[in-house]
Amino acid sequence: MDTYIALKVESTEEILMALLTQFEFESFEENDDHFIAYINEKNLDDQSRIDISEIIQPYTDKFSFEVIAPQNWNALWEASFQPVIVDNFCQIRADFHPPIEGIGFDLVINPKMAFGTGHHATTYMMIKQMEGIDFKGKSIFDFGCGTGILAILASKLGAKEIDAVDIEHESYLNTIENSSINNVTNIVAYEGDLAIVPLRQYDIILANINRNILVKYADELKSRLSPDGILLFSGVLEEDKKIVADVYESKGLVIQQLLSRDGWVCAKMSLY
Questions:
Q1: Per mean pLDDT, which of 94-103, 246-255, 257-266 is the most reliable?
Q2: Is 129 left (phi over 0), alpha (psi -120 to 50) or beta?
Q3: Terminal alpha carbon distance of the chain
């Protein structure tokens, strides 16, 4: 297993976490007075450490890098992971938490090193947007699947077939594991970038990634969206919303609904 680095920062500035998304951090754990960002050691060279430090220092000088032994990861997230409830629509919990009665959908997610537990505003809003969409019998593409949480929810909402891809090996494995935990059998997981997924059109595309990736793959995602399909995207700061929206609008998509939470946005788009 790979070794990971935990960057602990004594700050709760959302903008600071957003600035760090340009690096290859795989997840962020938010707490009352600090946050922790996790990154694979192989993706953190000396120059990256310097660049990250320079970004953090204007906000706080209280931060540290700590090596996390692979065998300690389970204990680490079990100690901090708390269930998330999105209205009465959906609950996200680990397998060691009992289910909460009266919630529509119960998702069991063991995140390991993959992103997507519902704690972050972007995942929360994606789930909130999904509540108002008809998934029954639809084809789904989860671009940057992380833990597989969105693909799994899509399956439980009645989706017929689901492709999910992530460039990170741990995310690919985690999606497979969490699909099995949730008794979901109609997700095909791919490890790699978009090119590894067979070219086809989907009724709904889920893309909770980041601004740069959304802009880079705009043409490819549009080509994979059916004429009456829906694109849901998040991972974009409010201040970057226009940048991403302009790119997709230039390709014939229009925003149908926009959510905002903690400085992040989540958009529902469709073709004109």
A1: 246-255
A2: alpha
A3: 46
- Domain 129-271 adopts which CATH fold? Rossmann fold (3.40.50)
Average pLDDT for 84-91: 91
- Of residues 95 and 269, the one with the higher pLDDT is 269
Q: Residue 155: pLDDT above 90?
A: yes
In whole angstroms, how large is the CA radius of gyration of the chain?
A: 18
pTM above 0.85, yes or no: no
Domain 4-75 classified CATH 3.30.70? yes
Of 33-42, 215-224, 242-251, the poorest mean pLDDT is in: 33-42
Of 125, 85, 83, 82, the C-alpha closest to 104 is: 85
**Cα–Cα distance between 244 and 61 in angstroms, integer?**
32
Q: Do the beta carbons of residue 12 and residue 34 sit within 8 Å?
A: yes
Query: pLDDT > 90: what percent of the chain?
Result: 62
* Per-residue tokens: 131: 């509540």
Q: Closest Cα to residue 28, out of 147, 116, 129?
A: 116
Equal CATH topology for 4-75 and 129-271: no
Question: Residues of 175-185 as b/e, b for ≥16 C-beta within 10 angstroms?
Answer: bbbbbebbebe
* Residue 130 near residue 104 (C-beta atoms within 8 A): no
Q: What is the C-alpha to C-alpha distance for residues 248 and 255, in angstroms, rounded to an integer?
A: 9
Burial of 166 (0-12, 13-18, 19+ CB in 10 A): buried
Helix (H, G, I), strand (E, B) or coil at 161: strand
Judge contact between 163 and 141, C-beta under 8 A: yes
128-148: per-residue pLDDT in tens? 999 999 999 999 999 999 889
